[in-house]
Amino acid sequence: MIEAARLAAEMNPANQPHSAIVARALGGPPTHRASIAAVIAKKWPSTGVRLSVKFMDKPETALRKKILSHMNAWGKTANVVFTETNGTGQVRIARLDTQADGGFWSYVGVEILVIPPGEPTLNLEGFTINTIDSEFNRVVRHEAGHTLGFPHEHMRRELVDRIDEKKAIAFFGKTQGWSPQEVKEQVLTPIEESALLHTSNADPKSIMCYQIPGSITKSGKPILGGTDIDDIDASFAASIYPKAVAKKTATMKIPKRSAGFA
Ligand SMILES: [Zn+2]
To answer: Minimal CA–CA distance to 108: which of 67, 61, 64, 155?
Structure first.
């Protein structure tokens, strides 16, 4: 963890302490992989992200291509490219289905660099070429977002404050098999906003936001949650990892008056 912290700070000075390391998506069976408390945000350098991807259990070509293409959906607006490798791979994808390691999860950002080479950094239990497209959108893009260093949007204080703690513990215990402690870690602990680069308002339709049913919010209204990279996600990712822009500044006309420009 110390090594991950050092790396993160070195690679992107915007990295600051926060509280999500192993981040899970809903929909898999319970997982008991240890969550480690708070160290740092784990963004890659703002110059862009080029990561090699190894599939650990040799899925068919069509599935490998499909998973990669959904990970690369972030590259539409952001300077992000995932490329398959037969080598060790920086991102290592498994489809573990054990009690301890099953489900959908990913380590966050530069943390993947300190995971032992024989271990996965991202898990997609049960994914096959027959998995419905909407799950590729919802799950693969979400987990790739974690790999890019994005934490859960529902951990923003603005959204956590809407959730009823007791109801949430009962609900996720029943539907995901999570212990009260896991519910606290995954849903009820806000990330300190000061520690994040973030959009000005929490985005309940972010791909990084869980779907929270109205039955566990204080108002009774659901938090919609994301089913795909939305416009706010796409432009936020582009702001963190901007694509190279043509050098136009040299010929740009400088307005005589600055008043009125914003
Ligand atoms: Zn997640």
So the answer is: 155
Q: Which residues surround ligand 1, an ion (CB under 5 A)?
A: 23, 25
Q: Which of 61, 50, 234 is nearest to 141 (CA)?
A: 234
In a domain, 172, yes or no: yes
Report yes or no on 246 lying in a domain. Answer: no
Q: From ligand 1's centre to the CA of 103, what distance in Å?
A: 11
For 80-102, how does the pLDDT look when each residue is reduced to its tens digit (9 = 90+)? 999 999 999 999 999 999 878 88
Centroid of ligand 1 to alpha carbon of 125 (angstroms):
14
* H helix runs in the chain, sequence order: 2-11, 61-71, 133-135, 141-147, 157-160, 165-176, 180-183, 231-240
How far apart are alpha carbons 46 and 118 in whole angstroms? Answer: 28
State the distance from the centre of ligand 1 to the C-alpha of 242, rounded, in angstroms: 23
Distance 24 CA to ligand 1 centre (A): 4
Q: Quote the pTM value.
A: 0.78
Q: Quick check: is 260 in a domain?
A: no
Q: Ligand 1 mean position to 25 CA, how many Å?
A: 4
CATH code of residue 18: 3.40.390.10
Higher-confidence residue of 37 and 134: namely 134
Which one, of 116, 121, 31, lies nearest residue 71 by Cα? 121
Instruction: Give the integer Cα–Cα distance in Å for 190 and 160.
Output: 6
Q: Provide the number of structural domains found in the chain.
A: 1
- The residues near 231 (Cβ < 8 Å, ≥ 6 apart) are none
Residue 12 is predicted with a pLDDT of 58
Residue 77 neighbours by CB under 8 Å, 6+ apart: 234, 235, 237, 238, 243
Structure tokens at 44: 């890659």
What's the domain range around 6?
2-240
In a domain, 255, yes or no: no
